[in-house]
Amino acid sequence: MKIKLFLGMVFAFMTFSVSAQGVAATPGYIKELTADWQGERFPDGRPKVSDALLKRLKNIQIEEAWGYLRRKGYNNQYDGNWKILHPGQVMTGRVLTAQYTPLRPDYQQLIKVKGGAENRDTIGGSNSWPIEILQPGDVYVADGYGRIIDGTLIGSNLGNAIYANSQNGFIFDGGVRDVAGLLDIEGFNGWYRGDDPSYLAEQMLTEINTPIRIGRAIVLPGDVVLANRHGTIFIPSHLVAELVLSSEVVGLRDQFGFQRLREKTYTPGQIDTKWTDAIKADFVQWLKNYPDNQLPMTRKELDDYIKNAGY
């Protein structure tokens, strides 16, 4: 009798756990994942990093962002070796994640039921579900585990839908189809592993806005991505502002160093190692003469950073 009661309790617990788990993460769970973010959020719980910071981030080099994150202990935020629709362009945005797996009919049926309970369109393919909830400035980031044949996540129709909702692009660890049609979408860009004429046939969506892996990087919903011809780097939302400002100052340091090397004021060894107090003082004076309207940050942001950095 006790065994039957115990088994019944286990079954009830398992049933509750399955019914409580939806396709998309709850706002509460996303807030737990991104607890260090203190600013505004979307209704789905994702951090809403400002458009101004996203614009400034476009001028940051991948290496500078990578170095900053490594110093903070985030060693698994970069991935490279992409095909890119428009390699000469830079993309930044707020991440919306999606997880795909190989197709399994019984699991696919459960996902369809769960999606219906979340008022998602169960007539078309579930690969449209993440696209339907994109917000302006979002980047659709999907783990397709590198699959290309029978794993093409979008073609030109869904590509147009992505751009209509987000005014931005995508990053897929997987495949796409109809690249010619995707290239025709003005302002649209995407990073992907390969292309194939096959449709999405042996792959299924399982989760939206949960942690995913993109190559060697871990990505959380609400991260901010910097993507260019040199790769993609995924930045925790609470570090974006400091990363941008720090990288901008590094850029100014480089300008100063290059100028002083051309002028032969200092040797390469002096510039390329820890600066002396005299060089630091020279840099601070050089910054004071830098035109305000050419600074990538406000003068107050710069002055505060320099003071706190001990120049």
Can you put this structure into words, describing what you see?
With 311 residues, the protein is an alpha/beta fold. It has two domains: 33-235, Ribonuclease E inhibitor RraA/RraA-like (Glucose Oxidase, domain 1, 3-Layer(bba) Sandwich), CATH 3.50.30; 241-308, no CATH class. The protein has twelve helices and 13 strands. The strands form three sheets. Strands 1, 2, 3, 4, 5, 7, 9, 12 and 13 form a nine-stranded mixed β-sheet that branches. Strands 6-8 form a two-stranded parallel ribbon. Strands 10-11 form a two-stranded antiparallel ribbon. A hairpin with a 2-residue loop joins strand 10 and strand 11 (217-219). The longest helix has 23 residues, at 240-262. The chain is elongated, with a radius of gyration of 23 Å. Substrate binds at residues 155-158, 177. Mg(2+) binds at residue 178. Its cofactor is Mg(2+).
How would you summarize what this structure contains?
By secondary structure, the protein is α/β, with parallel strands linked by helices.
Task: Give keywords.
Glucose Oxidase, domain 1; elongated; 311 residues; nine-stranded mixed beta sheet; metal-binding; two-stranded parallel ribbon
